């Protein structure tokens, strides 16, 4: 483990905090704001840590942050991959291996997501893990960022978790299952059998005969339907259009769901923002 550069870490955090505008992370500017950048407590909230802990880091007196904590800070400050690696090294940690599936969210995709507050949007990893989701997406899908282990992957839940497929009408589930497996095949080819993609494949082959049969078909493609029907427990079927934006290395994507103006689906999406997460059926809540 490398030695932590407390002064360098504190200076880097402060400068990056001051460089991020509230609008960049979806926060209101406010009339009484004294600085153009973020406040310390705002960074702490975005990184899911206490304001006191973050303040101590900027004051050169905090403990060495864990890799998970550094990842949260990198996301909160919208750091690029190079900036994230620099943050890790200042904290005395090895920079994450870029050749494996990473939980670090693309800063470019985050900037787009921050501006999408009125329609469901989420950032997915190559393994179908929800890395970040806005409020409408959480109201529609539940909090998928709360899962841990293999359960983080949508394809894993699709084949092993009862009720996961109920998000789609029965008529579309076979097609969606094939798409899930075809997407995983892309990640498996990219990262190899010794990666987390390989771990997923081995676990699913053991636990799901349906997955094993589809895997043996060797279908491989990044499949995101341009138009799909989703089922909400309170609102019923929602017909939505899907727009997908990939990072340059294809390791993450931003999925945005919209509906044409003045349609029933558009009205339901608007109502979804009002309902929020309060009306979610128990089985749709993360971790249940």
TrEMBL record:
One Pfam family from the UniProt entry? MLTR_LBD
Domain HTH cro/C1-type span(s) in chain numbering: 36-84
Q: Which domain of life does the protein's organism represent?
A: Bacteria
Molecular function terms in GO for this entry?
A: DNA binding
Protein's recorded name: Helix-turn-helix protein
Source organism of the structure: Xylanimonas ulmi
The opening ranks of the lineage are:
Bacteria, Bacillati, Actinomycetota, Actinomycetes, Micrococcales
């Amino acid at each position: 483990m490398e030695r932590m550069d407390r002064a360098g870490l504190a200076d880097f955090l402060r400068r990056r905090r001051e460089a991020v505008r509230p609008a960049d992370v979806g926060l209101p500017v406010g009339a009484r704001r004294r600085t153009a950048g973020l406040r310390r407590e705002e960074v702490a909230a975005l990184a899911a840590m206490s304001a006191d802990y973050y303040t101590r880091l900027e004051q050169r007196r905090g403990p060495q942050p864990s890799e998970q904590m550094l990842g949260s800070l990198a996301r909160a400050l919208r750091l690029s991959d190079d900036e994230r690696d620099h943050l890790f090294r200042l904290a005395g940690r090895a920079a994450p291996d870029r050749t494996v599936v990473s939980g670090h969210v693309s800063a470019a995709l985050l900037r787009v997501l921050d501006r999408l507050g009125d329609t469901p949007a989420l950032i997915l990893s190559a393994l179908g893990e929800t890395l970040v989701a806005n409020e409408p997406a959480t109201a529609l899908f539940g909090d998928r960022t709360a899962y841990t282990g293999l359960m983080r992957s949508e394809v894993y839940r699709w084949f092993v978790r009862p009720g996961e497929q109920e998000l789609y009408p029965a008529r579309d589930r076979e097609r969606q299952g094939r798409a899930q497996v075809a997407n995983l095949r892309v990640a498996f080819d990219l990262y190899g059998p010794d990666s987390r993609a390989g771990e997923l494949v081995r676990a699913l082959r053991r636990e799901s005969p349906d997955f094993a049969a589809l895997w043996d078909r060797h279908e491989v493609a990044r499949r995101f339907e341009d138009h799909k029907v989703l089922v909400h427990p309170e609102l019923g079927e929602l017909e939505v259009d899907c727009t997908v934006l990939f990072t340059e290395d294809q390791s993450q994507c931003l999925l945005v769901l919209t509906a044409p103006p003045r349609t029933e689906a558009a009205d339901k999406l608007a109502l979804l923002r009002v309902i929020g997460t309060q009306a979610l059926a128990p089985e749709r809540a993360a971790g249940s």
